[in-house]
Design brief:
Layout (H helix, E strand, L loop, with lengths): L6 H24 L3 H20 L2 H6 L1 H23 L11 H22 L2 H4 L5 H8 L7 H21 L7 H7 L24 H17 L3 H21 L10 H33 L2 H5 L3 H13 L1 H14 L19 H7 L2 H13 L4 H13 L3 H6 L13 H5 L12 H9 L3 H17 L2 E3 L4 E3 L1 H5 L1 H4 L9 H33 L10
Antiparallel strand pairs: 1-2
Helix pairs in contact: 1-2, 1-4, 2-4, 2-5, 4-5, 4-22, 5-22, 8-25, 10-11, 12-14, 17-21, 18-21, 22-25
Length: 526
């Protein structure tokens, strides 16, 4: 099934190794200390273990589980590089550096063991499990361009409608349901790499026009993480395309095109950084007026963001203010919650290890295996069930009593704020040292579920269109959010909800097309 190791993978592996060596040398030269040395050791061990799995075999057979595993690696590798680029030590703001680096290294090793047992490349090529066989019977792995475009337009309309509403209030079941379908708007972007979903499609100009519209709509939401999603989706699809087709990237382009492409990327990153600064300014302006915040018009916010971008003097003042902020004394954990670590908003989503340090500090104060954290965890599991199901079985549960995050509870500020938490700090505070075993089992089960988005045959592998459309979500399945609760939520509810809602939309569109054009068929599994 797989002829040889992809040349591009070998090149990326070499680049990662060079970056690691430069990062370690730079850290020990500019910020020599024992805690920083421990941070370097964590990055080295993480790279050595990750490189074992960073192979064509694992990426092609288990792409979606691999992306989650990649995010685990990035969390331990990027802090060294990101902080060094910003002139900071890896321990910037840390108060528990040894516990943080040792704990995160152990958790990564445990995660790697779970990935190893969940993703067996030798068995995968011969056998599909019951879930995969069941999904195959309902045409889960099949699709065609017209259905893709129909799904994309549905998602685009849903996204526009949600923007016009300004937000989803608590108890708005239909609103939450629609938010869960927004990923559909990325469906047509998959047509840039049609081989991944086994279709033939050559009208790429139309796809690029649509992609620009999607990017514009995401920018209009005035949420920074949504800016990254379209670019991240295209980047990951390209990577998977390279692996799937066994392409040597260096043979695709000339050195001149490579330089021009690199220059374009730098300009794009600079623009995204400026856009992020303008968005934050717009958000802060709206926060001064509670009425304006509650009834915020997303299109108005978008207009203000664009006006800020075009105001050169204002942008210069905002940048100057941001630079001055970097030199202010850091907030200590006993003073207040502080997430300040990496300034770049894109890297901060995958490299903010200070959250681990902070939550470990809070976990020590609260006590490992804390009863309050455990009780809240149990109630959160019950709360994952939809309200109609709770009522059907007569389970009394008031979800309005839990309108705060695990990070809020851990920090002792359970009145709201929706603070994030780390897997390690939250897990130890909830289960004590048993957490490491529990997390290993949970990761194993999540990896196994993600593998059901791939159907294995003797000739090739077939990727589920649902997973290709929402591919960027898998890269965010390990980051600072709700810790192990987020993983269990995926096991109990999110996975099933995604599959069922996708199949409902898919079958609806398919039936609609069958009525309009009975000759329309979908691709057959290879």
């Amino acid at each position: 099934m797989i002829k040889s190791e992809n040349h591009s993978i070998r090149q990326i592996n070499l680049i990662l190794k060079v970056i690691l060596v430069l990062g370690v040398v730079g850290e020990l030269i500019f910020f020599p200390s024992i805690p920083n040395f421990f941070g370097c050791v964590m990055a080295i061990i993480s790279y050595m273990v990750f490189s074992y799995f960073f192979k064509t075999l694992y990426i092609r057979l288990f792409p979606f589980a691999f992306l989650m595993y990649l995010s685990m690696f990035m969390y331990r590798f990027l802090p060294l590089i990101a902080t060094l680029l910003e002139g900071k030590p890896i321990t910037y703001g840390f108060e528990r550096p040894y516990q943080t680096f040792i704990g995160e290294t152990i958790l990564f090793l445990i995660s790697s063991i779970a990935f190893y047992f969940a993703c067996n490349p030798h068995k995968a090529t011969f056998k599909n499990n019951l879930i995969q066989k069941t999904l195959d019977k309902v045409k889960f792995y099949e699709i065609n361009p017209p259905i893709i475009w129909a799904m994309g337009l549905i998602g685009f309309i849903i996204k526009g409608y949600n923007l016009s509403k300004g937000g989803v209030e608590y108890g708005d079941v239909s609103g939450k349901f629609l938010i869960g379908l927004e990923y559909l708007m990325f469906a047509p972007i998959c047509l840039l790499f049609p081989d991944l979903i086994r279709v033939r499609y050559k009208q790429t100009k139309l796809v690029w026009i649509y992609t620009i519209l999607v990017i514009t709509l995401n920018v209009a939401s005035n949420k920074r993480h949504l800016i990254i999603t379209p670019f991240g989706t295209m980047g990951l699809l390209f990577l998977l395309h390279v692996i799937f087709k066994n392409i040597n990237i260096t043979k695709l382009t000339s050195p001149l095109k490579f330089i021009v492409g690199g220059f374009f990327i730098l300009i794009s990153l600079s623009f995204l950084s400026n856009l992020s600064t303008a968005m934050l300014h717009t958000r802060n302006v709206m926060l001064y007026d509670a009425e304006q915040r509650n009834n915020a018009d997303k299109l108005k916010a978008f207009e203000q963001t664009i006006e800020t971008l075009q105001n050169e003097s204002l942008m210069n003042r905002l940048k100057e203010k941001k630079n001055k902020k970097e030199y202010k004394p850091l907030t200590n954990y006993h003073q207040n919650w502080s997430e300040e670590y990496v300034d770049n908003f894109m890297l901060a989503r995958y490299a903010n290890m200070r959250i681990t340090d902070e939550t470990l500090y809070l976990a020590e104060k609260k006590g490992y295996g804390n009863k309050q954290m455990l009780d809240f965890f149990k109630n959160s599991i019950i709360g994952l069930l939809p309200s109609p199901i709770l009522k059907l079985f007569g389970i009394p549960f008031n979800k309005s009593l839990y309108e705060f995050s695990r990070g809020d509870l851990l920090s002792g500020r359970s009145l709201g704020g929706y603070r994030v938490t780390s897997h390690l700090g939250d897990g130890l505070a909830t289960f004590g040292y048993w957490y490491l075993i529990i997390q290993a089992v949970v990761f194993f089960l999540v990896f196994k579920l993600l593998n059901t988005f791939v159907y294995y045959s003797k000739k090739t592998v077939v990727y589920a269109p649902l997973a290709i459309m929402s591919i960027f979500n898998f890269l965010g399945m390990f980051r600072n959010a709700q810790g192990i609760s987020g993983n269990i939520s995926y096991l109990i509810r999110d996975y099933l909800q995604d599959v069922i809602t996708y199949l409902i939309i898919f079958l609806f569109v398919k039936i609609l097309f069958a009525i309009v054009n009975p000759e329309l068929t979908i691709t057959k599994k290879i």
